[in-house]
Write a structure and sequence with these properties.
Elements: H1 12-16, E1 21-23, E2 28-35, E3 39-41, E4 44-51, E5 54-57, E6 62-75, E7 78-90, E8 95-97, E9 100-107, E10 112-114, E11 117-119, H2 131-142
Parallel strand pairs: 1-3, 2-4, 3-5, 4-6, 5-6, 6-7, 7-8, 7-9, 8-10, 9-11
Length: 143
């Protein structure tokens, strides 16, 4: 809110890599999560996820969906469904049952993945028909 003189605002990448909302450990939710922010899921979620930001599935988090589409997905809990993301990280406690399409994949020793991994040089998340145009417009507005 308040910045010192000469202090820069966070970049678009930094904003996309933060958690704006949390689904707590005692919560079960069904539906759709979409938008540009980031979400951390520590409870149970059943539905579709399409974010231009960060999705973190905490160690207690349980996600069941046909497809997660996001800029970055970090799995420390369990995911039953496919993941398409520019960056995917599966931690030592993470469990994924589904296919992963990504440009960057990292796993820790003990991570579990049952599915196919497809690595791409460039990746369209399929979130909007004119995603690249929208990002260019946002950069123009910020500059």
């Amino acid at each position: 809110m308040f910045r010192k003189a000469g202090e820069r605002q966070p970049s678009v990448e930094a904003v996309a890599e933060r958690v704006d909302s949390v689904l707590g450990s005692g919560i079960s939710w069904q539906g759709e999560i979409s938008g540009t922010g980031g979400v951390r899921i520590d409870g149970a979620f059943d539905g579709e996820i399409g974010l231009r930001g960060l999705v973190v599935i905490g160690e207690q988090g349980r996600v069941t969906c046909q497809h997660i589409r996001a800029a970055t997905v970090v799995v420390a809990g369990s995911v039953k469904g496919n993941i398409t993301a520019r960056k995917v990280e599966i931690t030592r406690t993470g469990r994924v049952w589904g296919n992963v399409v990504t440009t960057s994949l990292s796993t820790e020793e003990g991570a579990f993945l049952k599915g196919e991994i497809t690595m791409e040089e460039e990746l369209d998340l399929g979130l909007a028909p004119h995603e690249a145009q929208g990002e260019a417009e946002e950069e123009g507005e910020a500059g």
